[in-house]
Amino acid sequence: MPQRTASTAAHTPAGTPAPPRLRGYRYVGVIGKGSTAYVFRYRQEATERDVAIKVGTTHLDSKAGARFKTEAVFMASLQHPNILTVHGAGVTDDGRPYTIFEYAPAGSVKDIIATQGVYPVDRTLDYGVQLASALYLAHRNNTVHRDLKTSNILITAQGVPAIADFGIATNIYDHRSTGYSPPWAPPEVIASRGSGDDRSDIYSLAATLYAMLAGKSPFEYAYDPHTIDELVDCIMHKPVPPINRADVPQSLQQVLLKALAPDPANRYFTAVEFARALQEVQIQLYGHATPVNVQGIEPYPTRAAMATAGAQGALPAAPAKPKDRRPLIIAAVVLVVLAVLGVVFAAVILPNIDHSGDTGTAAVVNPGMNGTSGGDDDDDGTTTTVPSPIELSGAYAGDTVKFTWSNPDPQDGDRYAWSVINGTGSGQANAKLIEGTSVEVPASDGAQTCIQVSIVRQDRRMSSTPATACAVK
């Protein structure tokens, strides 16, 4: 073990625990501290690059230390441009766990808000799509963060936002507490004082984006609580307010409020669906979107953007028709609805699906787990396309319409996401998840009632194209 240099003590503020002596690394100084760890800056001697080393303040026994090393290796496998790179991990001679991270010289989003003020809308949306992509990759690998906040979003040397601290600090072994931060935690985490799931992470990411626009976490911004107890009471019992900024559009406010819904079932289904909603706002405002960066996921919602344009009035309204031509008009309307709406489901309907029956996600799992179902994967590891339902049809029965369909490739755990399509081309408010292959819905006003249905696999993959059908009176 190399000797500490004389400069180590000079760079360590009073009251800071001594930084560990690590072979091949030279201590430079303190970066920051949290409730469970300190972060030090070191220089890697072989490469002369700076790294950040997070050192826990508690001591692990030999069993917990071995588990920490194994799980740190797994965390290092989560390679994504928007996840801070893990270079290594271990346990010091006195039992403190440490993790070696990529050094982010620009600091955190929290630092930037404090020194430069709130973020512009376009950059917030850009960061949101990038971070939601990284979050989805982690969730797909059965890993939840549990403590997303502005101080855990760091800006790398390339100017890219990156999520830090994916739960491999010491508190992961103390199941009495998850180490969450109340300003950013959803009600279900605060109520249980326990670990959250992927929808809890979506809430915390939305709270972080909210703070980028407002300068503070949602309930600190709105209610100015003076104590943690007051803050918790606000989170548990009061609504999230809109952001008082004229340049923050209503469409973005609505996306954030949905992701911040107090009931997890009313949030976005997955982080990638949250990203899709943010992309839709980008397209509406700027005509372009930040790509979703996850293997196997389409980067852009091109077809959904076309459908959104149609719903906003790009498609001409049909003129009044003579009564004797009504059957032809109905048929034409049905064709237009199907042509426009057949592309919107993956990016617009799914974010609003009811989550009843979803299960939680473990914080860190066995490194051998890959988070995908083996039955739907090709031998080379690529994910096969989920088919669309077939034989979808509906029939009126008084004031209701019953739709039925078939699954061409049933798998264990399959469910069905369905939505009634209204006359504007949007059915997102009605989206539901069910287990059966039929549904009875109230008849829509007008001459037809239309729905869309997709198959949703147990691993949350869904039909690439939904089945659509209209029942005509």
UniProtKB/TrEMBL annotation:
It comes from Bifidobacterium castoris. Residues 25-285 form the Protein kinase domain. It is an enzyme of class 2 (transferase). Pfam families: Pkinase. The chain crosses the membrane at residues 328-350. One of its GO terms (molecular function) is protein serine/threonine kinase activity. This is non-specific serine/threonine protein kinase. Residues 1-15 have a biased composition (Low complexity). Keywords: ATP-binding, Kinase, Membrane, Nucleotide-binding, Serine/threonine-protein kinase, Transferase, Transmembrane, Transmembrane helix. Gene3D superfamilies: Transferase(Phosphotransferase) domain 1. Residues 1-20, 364-386 are annotated as: Disordered. ATP binds at residue 54. Its EC number is 2.7.11.1. PROSITE patterns: PROTEIN_KINASE_ATP (PS00107), PROTEIN_KINASE_DOM (PS50011).
